[in-house]
């Protein structure tokens, strides 16, 4: 007799995407996490886009403002009111502070209406709510590649919506073009897929680049022409460390009045996970210019509200203009420095990255180390990097890259010493590989990789008195 299915299709399916290398890398790290003294041969987590460079500034502010926390002597008088409050509009002080912060992170060139601020559980929840508001099961969003791996989960899994890739290439630094958009749109139409929107991430994860004004104008024209929505993930709005400045879609629709735009089609997804370094607070924002979307999203936000304790604290912190100014300036400075140290370290061993001006990562080009120009070869190289070099980076394939050989490497979720250790490991690996290439008359790296761990040259590099690692993980792997 046929057994009844006990669980739902969602529960039984793989829509979450946990089986991808993106998450496998996290698992490898979880099983053997690097620690400078307790586990110096462990895996270094460079797959996590988290900004830990400015935590000290936030800690200082919290200590100087004990009344902003409801679990302190100075703030406990507000505990009961906060614990009881549960309106899904959120605290008005919180919405005002977030609207002001969003304006500040866009250079105060635009303003945001606090009444349009809808809360959600991080940008993750914001994307799902937006997708629920805009698309029916089977409908699709165009998404330029490479794109953030979590979108497959956030936009598709529970909503039944689809993502249609818009192919961007290294030949023009992965810039999104009108032609690529048209091609993707036409292809979807041929496949009988109804396109409901275009989703962009600006600044980009994983590229770390920002879109220029011309591109943004092209997008606005494109979506208006097709009568589809434009969802702009601006989660890295203030995670910019050098020129050019970030331009928000809000600036285009407010300032570029020469292009026609139906504002009902424009929606911004934001979060404090990156710009403030608060991924644990789960503060996500849906900012829509469409009244109906605001109303619907607000009703749906009941499933993922931000706790009032967090709202209360942030209302106070983000209203402190002097702190916000100092924080953002210092954050950009520290990011720039970290980015410079890391990319220069890579450049010294001949590794290039896509030139970027923001984000918490670099888009690293290792195509010259691939055995063949295929995604299988990319996966092989990734396995060596994770299991032997012991660095968790994310392969381009997990971001739907159209070209093999690119890897996203995060550099802001660790201290200076861990960065040096990671560079040392990469350096050792690349130099080893280079030696092999020469001595074996360019035989592929993979077949002789294990052999290479025992070579004299490798030991020279890793056991040098200047090496920050007492014992190389690669040496360990070879014994
Ligand atoms: C582009 C992008 N969107 C959304 C998210 C999810 O952010 P949150 O932690 O706010 O859910 C991330 C996190 O890495 C991201 O990079």
UniProtKB/TrEMBL annotation:
It catalyses: S-adenosyl-L-methionine = 1-aminocyclopropane-1-carboxylate + S-methyl-5'-thioadenosine + H(+). Its EC number is 4.4.1.14. Residues 171-198 form a coiled coil. Signal peptide: none annotated. One of its GO terms (molecular function) is pyridoxal phosphate binding. Pfam families: Aminotran_1_2. Residues 44-426 form the Aminotransferase class I/classII large domain. Keywords: Coiled coil, Ethylene biosynthesis, Fruit ripening, Lyase, Pyridoxal phosphate, S-adenosyl-L-methionine. Its cofactor is pyridoxal 5'-phosphate. One of its GO terms (biological process) is fruit ripening. InterPro entries: Aminotransferase_I/II_large, Ethylene_sulfur-biosynth, NHTrfase_class1_PyrdxlP-BS, PyrdxlP-dep_Trfase, PyrdxlP-dep_Trfase_major, PyrdxlP-dep_Trfase_small. Pathway: Alkene biosynthesis; ethylene biosynthesis via S-adenosyl-L-methionine; ethylene from S-adenosyl-L-methionine: step 1/2. It is an enzyme of class 4 (lyase). It comes from the Eukaryota. Homodimer. Belongs to the class-I pyridoxal-phosphate-dependent aminotransferase family. This is 1-aminocyclopropane-1-carboxylate synthase. It comes from Lupinus angustifolius. The lineage of its organism: Eukaryota, Viridiplantae, Streptophyta, Embryophyta, Tracheophyta.
């Amino acid at each position: 007799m046929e057994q009844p299915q006990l669980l739902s299709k969602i529960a039984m399916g793989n829509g979450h995407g946990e089986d991808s290398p993106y998450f496998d890398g996290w698992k490898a790290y979880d099983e053997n996490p690097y620690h400078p003294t307790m586990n110096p041969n462990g895996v270094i987590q460079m797959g996590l886009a988290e900004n830990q460079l400015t935590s000290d500034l936030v800690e200082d502010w919290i200590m100087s403002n004990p009344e902003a926390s409801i679990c302190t002597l100075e703030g406990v008088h507000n505990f009961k009111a906060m614990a009881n409050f549960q309106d899904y509009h959120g605290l008005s002080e919180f919405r005002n502070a977030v609207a002001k912060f969003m304006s500040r992170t866009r250079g105060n060139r635009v303003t945001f209406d606090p009444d349009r601020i809808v809360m959600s559980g991080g940008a993750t929840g914001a994307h799902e709510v937006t997708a629920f508001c805009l698309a029916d099961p089977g409908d699709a969003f165009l998404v330029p590649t490479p794109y953030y791996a979590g979108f497959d989960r956030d936009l598709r899994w529970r909503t039944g919506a689809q993502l249609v890739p818009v192919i961007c290439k290294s030949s023009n630094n992965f810039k999104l073009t009108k032609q690529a958009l048209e091609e993707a749109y036409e292809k979807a139409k041929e496949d009988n897929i109804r396109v409901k929107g275009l989703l962009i991430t600006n600044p980009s994860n994983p590229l770390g680049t920002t879109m220029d004004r011309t591109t943004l104008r092209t997008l606005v024209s494109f979506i208006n022409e097709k009568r589809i929505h434009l969802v702009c993930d601006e989660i890295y709005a203030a995670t910019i460390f050098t020129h050019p400045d970030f331009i928000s879609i809000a600036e285009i629709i407010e300032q570029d009045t020469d292009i026609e735009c139906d504002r009902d089609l424009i929606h911004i997804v934001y979060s404090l996970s990156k710009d403030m370094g608060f991924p644990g607070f789960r503060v996500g924002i849906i900012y829509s210019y469409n009244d109906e979307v605001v109303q619907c999203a607000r009703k749906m936000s009941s499933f993922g509200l931000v706790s009032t304790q967090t709202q209360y604290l942030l209302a106070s912190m983000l209203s402190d203009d002097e702190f916000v100014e100092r924080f953002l300036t210092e954050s950009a400075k520290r990011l720039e420095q970290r980015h410079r140290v890391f990319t220069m370290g890579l450049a010294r061993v001949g590794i290039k990255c896509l030139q970027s001006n923001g984000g918490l990562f670099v888009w690293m080009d290792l195509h010259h180390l691939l055995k063949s120009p295929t995604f299988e070869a990319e996966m092989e190289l990734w396995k060596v990097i994770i299991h032997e070099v012991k660095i968790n980076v994310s392969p381009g394939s997990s971001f739907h890259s159209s070209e093999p050989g690119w890897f996203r490497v995060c550099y802001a979720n660790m201290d200076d010493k861990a960065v040096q250790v990671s560079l040392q490991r990469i350096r050792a690996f690349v130099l080893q590989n280079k030696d092999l290439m020469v001595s074996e008359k360019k035989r592929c790296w993979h077949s002789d990789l294990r052999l290479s761990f025992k070579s004299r040259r490798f030991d020279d590099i890793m056991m040098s008195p200047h090496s920050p690692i007492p014992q190389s993980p690669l040496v360990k792997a070879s014994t």
